[in-house]
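User: Show me a protein chain along with its predicted structure.
Assistant: Here is one chain, sequence first, then C-alpha cells.
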Amino acid sequence: MSSVPAKSGDVLSPASAAKRKSIVRAAARVFMGAGYGAASMDLIAAEAGVSKQTVYSHFGAKDALFEEIVSGKCEELLDAEGLRVTDDGDPDVVLFEMAKVFLYVVLNDESVTLYRTILAECGRFPELAEVFYRAGPKTATMRLAKYLERVHGRGRLAVPDPEAAASMFFAMLRGNMYLQRILGLRGMPDDQEIHEKARGVAETFLRAYKA
C-alpha cells in the first residue's frame, strides 16, 4: 500500500478518529470471534462497514491492529480516570485505585476472551505474545515502577527495586481469582469481592515496602 498508516499518537480529524475507533472495536470482535489466524483485513473491514483500503490506511498490518487493541486495554487500565498516578499521589490511595481498576479491567468478559485468544494462537503466531506483553503487562509494570521510584525517592515508601516490586504487585492481584476466570470456573466477581481483593493486596504491599 502506498499510503503511510496512521499512528495512535497522530492528530486526526474527529471523523477520522471516530472511524479509527470503529475499526478497532470491529477488529476486537473479529479477533475474539474467529481467532487471530482466521481473522482477515477483509473480515475486519466488513465488520466495521469500511473498505479494506481504509483499514490499511489506519493500520498497516493485522499485527499492528491487534497491538492497538491490546494497547487500548492497557490505556483503559492506566488512564486518568482509572488510575490517578501523580507525583504527590498518596500511596494508600494510588495503590488501592490501581488494584481495583486492574481487577475490573482484566476480569471482565472482553479481556478474558482476548487473553484466551492470545493463549490459543501464540504458538502459531509468536508475534502475538510479544505484542501482548509489550503493550499490556510490560507497560503497566513500568508505569507503576516509575511511580514507586518517585515515592521511594521522597521517602514515602522503601522500594529499592521498583520494577520488581511492581511485578510482584500485579502478580498478587492476578492470583487464583484471575486463574479461575481464565479457566471458566467462575463468573465476574461482584464489586464487594473486587474491592476486598484490591484492598488486601494494596495493604499487604504497603506493609512490605513501608519506609
